[in-house]
Amino acid sequence: MSQYQNDVKQIAELRSTKAGTWNAINPDSAARMKAQNRFKTGLDIAKYTAAIMRKDMQDYDADSSQYTQSLGCWHGFIGQQKMLSVKKHQGTTDKSYLYLSGWMVAALRSEFGPLPDQSMHEKTSVAALIEELYTFLRQADARELGDLFRQLDDAKQQGQDTTAIQQAIDNYETHVVPIIADIDAGFGNEEATYLLAKKLIEAGACCIQIENQVSDAKQCGHQDGKVTVPHEDFLAKINAVRYAFLELGVDDGVIVARTDSLGAGLTQKIPVSQKPGDLAAQYNAFLDTSEVKSIDELVDGDSVLKQNGKLVKPVRLPNGLYKFQDNTGFDRVVLDCITSLQNGADLLWIETEKPHVGQIGDMVRAIRNEIPNAKLVYNNSPSFNWTLNFRQQIFDIWSEAGKDLSQYNRDELMSVKYDDTDLALEADEKIRTFQADAAREAGIFHHLITLPTYHTAALSTDNLAKGYFGDQGMLAYVKGVQRKEIRQGLACVKHQAMAGSNMGDDHKEYFSGEQALKASGEDNTMNQFDAA
């Protein structure tokens, strides 16, 4: 017996104990409402999706082609439409997640208006977006199940076989999928990180991504001026997130440790080493220093360290920040990653300056010398110029192979004049296979794009506005939007139903019976799309 059928039975038994006072309650209707609201709390979602991520990680360890993917979504409706599309086109939501980007929260969800990605937005807006995303995903479930229940009723009324419809209801696959939630650098000290992590988990997040930048000097990973914290400070925040998961009963919650060390040349403070070779000593070994041979070389305010038996002065900038040695980013990334995995993190995130499988793979192989099953979450970032990057990569490969490149100018490969050339076509094929290649060769378990729906919203709005306010008028909308929605089978072409009008009608009928005033009658203009 399915859960739905079992609920019908249990509610009928409960009604029978109420001495007739519940006779207006239809057990089947109540069971349908329970089926349409499977997840009662955010913690229910976090526990359910954490188990999914853990299984997916095991699947990837066994077969690197089983990598996972997500797109960043800045509104519940965007996340809902994304998962409806995935399920429609792929037939399943398996291996598909949502990503919550701190960049997009700052740019699109702050009460201050658009802000840079510097942890300036309200921390509460992160948890609010998680809750909103899951509200819309749960509504997608309720809407689809409502359609199935109506099909079931119609088939019964017409005396048709209902077996297939009943199986679709009993085996329904939810749109609720894991969210990887960006907590930036924790929005404060480790206690602030713990408190915010709890809010994210209570909203439904099973996976929290935290980075090793200084919280009050946070920068976007693809901008300059990044400042990292010592290992001990970062590990304290990883611990804070783990305690939050454990306190709330999400024992298999997932932590992604992000390092910005590849592009960060600064640190805010010098940690205190307790014994030779400890984490603080390893961190300080990367500092840019000069040997001090006489106290007369020092001026008021200078800092000095004893390293390897010598007195050294670290390079300190006018803003008080300390500088790392040039060309140490690779080694600092590897140490960051190994240390994080050895101290409670589950997955890694390495911010790189370009999408290059070889570069990423070199770092992962160095990490896997210590942690054999190390896995990455990787940002397929819109901050990269993918076209130019990959055309230049192919140019360089061909150059090393001695191919004739006389028709190409490496610095101008973005030009449209190259679009149909062999070089451009090979670059596009490398872009197409980038995720599979990087999953196989560079340990990437999860591929995400942080800001795709930010860019698609801008592009589609530009196209519509250009025609609508130009010489196309209504044809710009009809041809460019509505006709495509109809022919591509987008559910939101019936926007009233997508917003819940059909579910509302169902509920009115449950509550009021034949006297219910419903919206889906003959005069509902949404009926025009039934014959489309």
Automatic annotation (TrEMBL):
Co-factor requirement: Mg(2+)
Reactions that this protein is recorded to catalyse: D-threo-isocitrate = glyoxylate + succinate
List of residues binding Mg(2+): D182
Protein origin, superkingdom: Bacteria
Free-text remark on how the cofactor is bound: Can also use Mn(2+) ion.
Lineage: Bacteria, Pseudomonadati, Pseudomonadota, Gammaproteobacteria, Alteromonadales
Active site, UniProt feature: C220 (proton acceptor)
Leader peptide range in chain numbering: none
Pfam families linked: ICL
Protein name, as recorded: Isocitrate lyase
SUPFAM superfamilies: Phosphoenolpyruvate/pyruvate domain
Keywords on record: Lyase, Magnesium, Metal-binding
GO terms under biological process: carboxylic acid metabolic process
